[in-house]
Amino acid sequence: MRIKKLNIGILLFVLVGVVPFAAAFIYALLYSFGIIGVANDGFTLQFWESVITSGTFFKSFGYSFLIALVAVAISVGGALWITLKFRQQLETRFMSFIIYLPLAVPGIVTGFFTFQLFSKGGFFARISHKLGFITEASQFPDLVNDGLAIGIIFSFLTMITPFFVLLFLNVYKNERVEELSILAQSLGANANQISRRVFLPILLKKTWVLIVLYFIFLLGAYEVPLILGQESPQMLSVLIIQEIKQYDLDKISEGYVVAVLYTLIVSVAAILLFLPKRKRAYAT
């Protein structure tokens, strides 16, 4: 009975998750080589050469990589500090509600909210004008649609920091870090040694896979960069959609080239992420 349920589960996963993804990837791959498409005449490497020589993909990928890396690093570091310093306060009903609340807000809403707060005509610009810090809107610093992606990073932080706080709190309880800390203290360890040799290693070792997966998720985020990003360079998902929706039919094929390259990079990263874990499982 259990085997039958397992087989049904695998079949549903393949039908719902694998087949649509594989079909979309094959379609994008064929389109990128000119095999299918309205204005394409047959197999060609023209679109691949155009994307690679222009450097647009690599600029966009590097830009997206840095934004995702900074957002994840700050979120993980902040969540670890909050868990270490305020874990008892976070167990109250009110604080639990405050932590869970941002997780219920869609990314597009977070993006619009950030724009209304930090744009030159937004809430903080108006407050600054009322207080006399600025005399006109142009004097307010660029915090959205800017080259440093401040608005994007801020939105990402509000979206994922609560998740990591909840994740670390759960691991802290399940791995009985409190008891291990008391044991380490009884053996003569001070607070800094407990944090560096007990608290951080356990939490990071148990959650590093989710941290990497969230990095990959932010790498391909679309709604927030669409609202808060700049014209150039753009984050990958925005670049792909913009290229695919161009009136120039050649740009559509180039958009699919970018999509295929991004999919290949993410797929290789996922394989490298999970393959060592499976090998260790077979070895034991």
Automatic annotation (TrEMBL):
SUPFAM superfamilies assigned to the protein according to its UniProt record, in alphabetical order: MetI-like (SSF161098)
Membrane topology classification: Multi-pass membrane protein
Keyword field contains Endoplasmic reticulum: no
Main location: membrane
Pfam families according to UniProt: BPD_transp_1
Domain ABC transmembrane type-1: 57-273
TM region positions: 12-40, 60-82, 94-118, 148-172, 207-228, 255-275
Keywords: Cell inner membrane, Cell membrane, Membrane, Transmembrane, Transmembrane helix, Transport
Localization (cell): Cell inner membrane; Cell membrane
InterPro entries with a match to the protein in the record: MetI-like, MetI-like_sf
Family stated for the protein in its record: Belongs to the binding-protein-dependent transport system permease family.
Official protein name in the record: ABC transporter permease subunit
Organism, as annotated: Zobellia barbeyronii
